[in-house]
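seq:
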Amino acid sequence: MASIELQLLLLILIANGVPIIAAAVCGDRGAWPVDGGRRWTDGRRLLGDAKTWRGVALAPLATALGAALLGWSAMVGVVIGVAAMLGDLLSSFFKRRLGVPTSGMALGLDQIPEALLPLLAVADVFGLSWPAIAATTVGFIVLELGLSPIFYRLGIRNRPY
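struct:
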C-alpha cells in the first residue's frame, strides 16, 4: 500500500475510532441518539442508541485535525469524517433491518461502508485506483478486527468486536 493510502487509512481509523473513544471517556454525556428513538416501518429502531450526535460531530473534527497534521487540507479530513459517519449510519440502518441488535456484530457490513464511502469521496482528489480503494478497505477491515479486542481489553469498547 502506498503512502497516500496509508495516510487515508489512518484518517479512516481516526474517524471511526473517535466516537468509540468519546463514548468511553464521556459516558452518556452528549450521547443523544441520531435517530431520536424513532422506529422504521418494521417496528425496529432506525439506528439505535450507539449512533450519537456526539460521535457524528467529533469524527469530522478529529479527522480534520488529523488531515492538517498530515499537511493536508482540513476539509479533506472533514469529508473523510463525514463520509465515514454516513457509512457507519448506513450500516447501522441495515443491521437494524436484519435484526442485528445495537452494537451487534455483522462482519463486513460493520467495516466496508465506513471505509469505502470515505475513499470514494476523496478518490478523485487523490487519484485513487479501484485496486487502491479495495486494498485500503481490506486494510481497514483487518485493522478494525485486530484493534477491537485490544480496545475491549483496555475498557474502551464494551464488546470485543
